[in-house]
Automatic annotation (TrEMBL):
Its cofactor is thiamine diphosphate. InterPro entries: THDP-binding (IPR029061), Transketolase-like (IPR051424), Transketolase-like_Pyr-bd (IPR005475). Pfam families: Transket_pyr (PF02779). Residues 2-49 form the Transketolase-like pyrimidine-binding domain. It comes from Rotaria magnacalcarata. This is Transketolase-like pyrimidine-binding domain-containing protein.
Length: 61
């Protein structure tokens, strides 16, 4: 799986980039992005992956 897209967006000034590892972190990334005052890129590409984080896990930017 290529990471060129993620590498490209990391060069954009003041952008926040997420690459969630499971469904829980993907949901939290979307919540954080919706409430963030700025540009956010979320790369999702991990179908049917085991859950790594508990539902009450706290994520921060």
């Amino acid at each position: 799986m290529a990471l060129e897209d993620f590498a490209f967006f990391r060069t954009v000034p003041n952008i926040v980039c997420f690459y969630p590892s499971d469904a829980v972190s993907a949901e939290r990334a979307v919540e954080l992005a919706a409430n963030y005052d700025g540009a956010v890129y979320i790369r999702t590409s991990r179908p049917n992956f085991q859950i790594l984080y508990k539902n009450d896990e706290v994520f921060e930017i």
